[in-house]
Amino acid sequence: MTGPVPSSSAGAPAVAEQPDAPAWMRVRAVTWGALVGLVLVLLGAWAGRADLAVIGAPVVVWAVWCWTARPVGDLRVEVVTDATTTPGELSTSVRVTAPDGTAAVALGVRRGNRTHARALVAVRGGVRDVPFVVRTVRTGPQTVAEVDALGLGAGAASVSEAADPAAGEALVLPGVRPLAALPLPPRLRGLSGGHESRRPGEGGGLRDVHPYTPGDRLRRIDWRVTARRSPQLRELYVRREHALAEAVVMLVVDSRDEVGPDPRTWGGWMRPRGADPTSLDLARTAASSLAQAYLDQGDRVGLDDLGALRRPLPPGGGRRQLDRIRNALALTRPEGDPVLRTRAPQLPSGALVLVFSTFLDDQAAHAAAQWRAAGHRVVAVDVLPTVREHLLDRRELLALRFVRLARTDRLAALEDADVEIVTWRDEPQVALAGLARRAQRRAGAGAR
């Protein structure tokens, strides 16, 4: 857009130069057809051949009509999609705005560098929405689709300039999978919740039967035990119960790296395929699933990120907390150079810590060991995708073997430090149920 053009007269106002309307170019076939038709008409008039004039005249009339009906105006396209969605089939649409006289619009839908679909859409001037579906397994902010458009005039006699490509952006929230039994921290907190604690209170199972003391409620008197132990009713006995409490859970995501199933993409010079979920996609899904499972039990859940020096999301409960966690997880991604921490972040005392990482280096493992030494119960969730090896050459296979050996030693050191390990790519619900049963056998683990 050019700026205002100064006038030669000092008192005259400046006149803005209007931009030229987008050109609709004539198709060469129409021009050649008009010339051929005109030649036939002239040849028929000169030679007295009415049949030649009858053949050429409609072609000339058609060409003149196409030139006069050529559209004038701008062709615009827009990708309309939901601001937030979940993985799977993303329903979206292309909104085409065409000037009067447009017969059709050629659309090309692409993702990345690949064109996935082409379509010729009839648009008789005005606005038309063209729905389509995009399938994705990725989470986080991403470009749903990019659309190119080219307008066709009446009779395909004119073609517009290519419209500016339109892109649709969406924040794909991580999905959730159902989980049954879950591990609990060693100590439960709060005066209410869904888990039975070790301290006396109300709402839980039977703790013991005790002689009545001042302060006990009369409705707690167990008359059968009283009649059996004190037939003369000289002493009353009351039933005492365990109190119900809540667990505090901290989800810690390691967003410093995002690797796919192909080890050749781990160096950063190749991007994982769009059809392959990355380690960060698995971490987002795992953290969202565990957050929903714990929040459904009435527990408090918070979120922290090892890859960013920002304020963590404090523990909270309810549906809003789940929405906050899923939105924060979707926005979590590698940011610049990895952050080197000298010590693990401070977490609420007595919390259950779930660390989601690939454990390809020592930082996440070092933080997990520090939290375990501080008295937290720590569960390391391995989110490394299943590695594909059939495309690797001999040198790459050797390098992968060294990486696996170092990672195996790192996970073994975590087990020696009493950090429990769950592999998310296998059957996480089975491993989590095993950790829940293990917690029930521990003294003071917060469960019966």
Give the key terms.
448 residues; alpha/beta; five-stranded mixed beta sheet; 8 helices; disordered N terminus
Description:
This protein has 448 residues and is α/β, with parallel strands linked by helices. Helix content is 28%, strand content 30%. It is built from 8 helices and 20 strands. A 6-stranded mixed beta sheet has the order 17-16-15-18-19-20, with helices on both faces. A hairpin with a 7-residue loop joins β16 and β17. α1 packs antiparallel against α2 and α4 runs antiparallel to α5. The N terminus and C terminus are likely disordered.
Task: Briefly say what this structure is.
The protein has 448 residues and is an alpha/beta fold. The chain has helices spanning 28-47, 50-68, 223-229, 279-296, 319-330, 362-373, 394-416, 428-441; strands at residues 4-5, 15-16, 24-26, 76-80, 84-85, 88-98, 104-111, 114-122, 126-136, 140-152, 158-160, 166-172, 195-211, 237-245, 248-253, 300-305, 313-316, 352-357, 377-382, 420-423.
Oligomer class: single chain
Largest sheet: 6 strands, mixed
- Span of the ends, CA to CA: 74 Å
Strand portion, in percent? Answer: 25-35%
Order of helices and strands: EEEHHEEEEEEEEEEHEEHEEHEHEHEH
Low-confidence spans: 1-22, 441-448
Query: Which structural class matches the secondary elements?
Result: alpha/beta
Tally of extended strands?
20
Number of helices: 8
Strand order of the largest sheet: 17-16-15-18-19-20
**Over all CA atoms, what is the radius of gyration?**
35 Å
What is the mean pLDDT? 79
* Overall spatial form: elongated
Helix content: 25-40%
